[in-house]
Amino acid sequence: MDQGQDAFDRGDFQSAIDTWSRIFLIDAHHPEAEMRIEQARRRREEIDRQVEHLFYDAHDAFDAGRVDEARSLCQDVLRMQPQHLEAHDLLTRIETPAAPPPPPAAPAADEDDLFRDDFVPAAISSSGSLAAVPGEAAPPVRERTGAVATPVSSRLPKIPALVLMGAAAALIVVVGGVFVLRSTVFSGGASAVTEALAESERLVKEDRLQDAARVLQSIQAQADGEQAKEISRRLLDYQRRLRAKAAQAKAVDLGPIRQAVAEGHRLKALQLIAESLVQAPGDLGLEAIRGEIVAWASALPDLLRTVQKGDWEGAQRAAAAIREQHPGDAAAQRAWQAATYNRAVALARAYRVAEANGVITQLANETTDADIERLRDMTKTYLTRPADPRYDIFVRNIELRPVE
Fold this sequence. Notes:
Layout: H1 2-10, H2 13-21, H3 31-63, H4 67-80, H5 85-95, H6 159-205, H7 209-219, H8 225-249, H9 255-262, H10 266-279, H11 284-296, H12 300-309, H13 312-325, H14 330-349, H15 353-364, H16 370-381, H17 389-396
C-alpha cells in the first residue's frame, strides 16, 4: 500500500495501479485497494483527457504556423506524460529547421571524354605505329618510377574497356536478381499496407471515417518507415474529424453545469466545462458560463488547476484568495478548509511534521472535527520523536478531502 501511495503522490498513476493490484494476490477482496485503484484510474483518465486536449491544440497551432505556441504546448504535454510519442514526434518536427535547397550541380569536367582510356592511344595505324596529328603538340609524358617501357605494338587496344563493360553488365544482372528476389519475399507486407492506404482513401471519400480508421488500425503493426508515419498522420486526422463531427451532431447539455453554478459548486461547474470543451471546442454556451464563473472569482481556474495537479499549497492560496473576495460564501469557505486539510496531510506524508502541525492547527482554530483533531494530535506527538511504522500507517491511510 505504501509503495503504491508513493507512486500515486508522484503522479505515476499507472505504477500505483500495478502496485496496488498485487494486493489481490494475497486478498482477492481488499476494499481499500479497490478504492485506491479506482481513484488512481480516475486521476489517470483526467490527465489523459487534459493531455489529449493540449496535444490537439499544439497540432492545430503547428498547422496554423504558430510554432512557439505549439512548442510550449508540446512541452506541457511531455511534462504531464513523458512517454507521449506523438508529442515527441511533433516537437521533433518543430525543432528541425527546414533544409535549404541543394546547390546547383557543377558541370562535369570533360563530359565528352567519359570513356577515355589513358592507356590506349587515340589512333593506331595498321602497322602498329601511332598516327601523327598535325598541328597538335604531343601531351607531356608522366614520369613513372620503376616502370618498364613496353612497345606500342605489344598493347591490346580496347581490351580494358570491353572487360569493364562486361563486368558492369554482369554486376547489373546480379544486383537486379537480388532486388527481384527481395521484392518477391517482402512485397506481401508492403502491398497490404498500400492497399489499406488506398482503401482508407476510398472510405473517406464516402464519408466513412470510422471505417477508414479501422482499416488503418488493422494494418498499422505491419507498416514501417514512411508508411508508418503516413498511417499515424491519417489516423490523427481521422480522429480529429470524427470528434468535430460528433461535436456538431450532439449539442452540449448545459443543464448540469448551470445546476452546479446555482448550487454554489462553481469549481465543479468549471471542471464540467473543461471536459465538455474537449468534445465541443469553442462552444459559445460553455464559454459564456465560464466567463460568468471567472468573473465571480478570478482565482477559480488556478484552484481547479492546482487541485488536479495535487498541488495543495497552491490550492490553499487560490482558495484563500476566493474566500477573501467572498468572505460570506459557504462554498468558498469549504474549499479553503478542504485544501488546507489536504495540504497538512501532504506535509505529514512528506515527514515535514512541524509544518503539517502548523497548517492543521491553523485549520483547527477556525473549525474542528474528529479527523482534524486526530491529525493535529498525531503531528504534535511526533514533533519531538522520529517517525515510526505507526506514524507511517496513520498518515498513509488518511483520506484527502474533495475540494468543491
